[in-house]
Each structure stands twice: as C-alpha cells, then as structure tokens.
Write a structure and sequence with these properties.
Helix content: 10-25%
Strand content: 25-35%
Number of helices: 4
Order of helices and strands: EEEHHHEEEEEEEEEEH
Distance between the termini: 24 Å
CATH class: Mainly Beta
Structural class: mainly beta
CATH superfamily: sav2460 like domains
Radius of gyration: 20 Å
CATH topology: Lipoxygenase-1
Length: 245
C-alpha cells in the first residue's frame, strides 16, 4: 500500500522542529491532558521524541550507601566494583510506535518492527524517522502532519521493549512532544513495571475538531497485540523482525 512506501532516507532537519520555547508542560496523573488546538498548535508537523538512558546503580545507590559508609569508614578507601556501562547501553532497545485510526475507518501501525515507517504526506500522515538501538541523545522520533488532522481520528503512541533487553525499571525513559507552536509536552515513564514489555504512553484524539493529547502510561506484559486489545483497535498481528543495522 502507498503509505508503507520505502524506508525514509531523508534527515529530520527537513521537518518542522516545533517551537523554540524553553517552557514545557508535564502531563501527570493530576494533569493528564492538554489541547493542541487551544494553544494554536494543531497545524504543521508535530514531533514526538523518545529518549532514554540506563539507570546506573553505582550512582543512584550512593545516597543509600552513605549511612553504611559512615558506620564503616574503612570502605571509603576500597575501590567500587562498577559494571561496564557500554554493555548496558548496547543491550537496551526501546522502540517508539504509533497505532493509528483514520476518519475513513482505516487502521494500522507505524513502528520499526516490520519496517512500517509510514508516510508524512499520505495516510496515515505519521512517519518514523529511524530506529535508535543505543539510547543516543537524539532518541527515536515520529512526525505527525497535523495539516491533515481532519483525516485523523485517533493516534496511540506506545513504547515497547525489543528482544532480550532489560525491563522498563532499568531505564529512565521520556516521551516529548514538540508542537508547531507553544511549549513542549513531556511524559515520563516513571512508574515501576519490571515485567512489562510495552507501554501505551499517550493518545492524540480528534474530539469534534479539537486535537486533545491525553496521558495514558499504561504498562502491559505483552506486546502490540495486547495494546490493541486494550484499546480496541482490531488489527491482526504476527511475529515481526527488524532488519539488521
């Protein structure tokens, strides 16, 4: 089909990068949603970025160890055993994806798995810029062409763990939305779910012409098929693989 056309070979720089505003909106349980329409950000390209880093036990554990060091001052002079950080980074592979439903009833997914990279100027008007397997500062990015917002019914953005990687509680992950206007919107995946393999992060929904971003942050123990059942998408799923980097 046309919207699964080839792998994207351009650069993210050719898209709108969103507002240069330094302020941000944090979506939380108490403040779970924001209207893009009300902040005049329902046009242009919405950039959605996933970034993460490993939790480092040697750093995060130091505050907890301080009491023990005071009781045993000789330990201050013993070298710490630190795991190789590079190995942890290589093993982490969080992927960003999007389930879409258009107003004409068509549905599908944009994700690295299966090389479903989408299209920005044809349905579903969602495009994945690439697949970051190492947690680089740039992370992974999806673009949404909101100039075609009238064709979009709902978009569910999700993160899943590919293959044999550590669970969500081993990483600090954050999804950031950069609208064409106004402050960026941030959603932290800060809840502990050590056995979860996927997380529905947020929904963009067209409600009577108004584009609403709503925080979800719902962890599930399966993959895309389980997210599908949770939100009633009704797609058929099979096992998929990534192309080798």
């Amino acid at each position: 089909m046309a919207f699964w056309d080839g792998l994207w070979r351009g650069r993210a720089a050719q898209f709108d990068s969103g507002s240069a505003s330094t302020n941000s909106i944090q979506l939380t349980k108490r403040r779970p949603q924001v209207s893009l329409s009300k902040q005049s950000a329902a046009t242009g390209n919405l950039r959605v970025n996933l970034s993460w880093r490993m939790r480092t036990s040697d750093i995060e554990g130091r505050s907890r160890q301080s009491g023990r060091l005071l009781r045993n001052p000789s330990k201050l002079f013993r070298p710490e055993v630190v795991q190789a950080h590079t190995q942890g980074v290589v093993n982490v592979d969080l992927d960003l994806g999007c389930l879409y439903e258009m107003t004409d009833g068509s549905k599908g997914v944009v994700q690295p798995l299966g090389s479903f990279f989408g299209s920005l100027n044809e349905p579903p008007y969602v495009r994945l810029s690439g697949d970051d397997r190492f947690g680089a500062p740039s992370g992974e990015t999806l673009f949404v062409n909101l100039d075609h917002r009238d064709s979009i019914r709902r978009l569910l953005f999700f993160v899943y763990i590919y293959d044999r990687t550590p669970a969500f509680d081993r990483t600090h992950a954050k999804v950031t939305l950069y609208p064409s206007n106004g402050p960026r919107v941030e959603i932290e995946l800060d809840e502990r779910a050590p056995q979860a393999r996927s997380c529905a992060v947020f929904m963009v929904e067209n409600v009577k012409g108004e584009l609403i971003v709503r925080r979800e942050v719902k962890f599930v123990y399966g993959f895309q098929a389980e997210l599908d059942r949770l939100y009633g998408w009704g797609l058929q799923w099979g096992r998929g693989y990534k192309t080798k980097a």
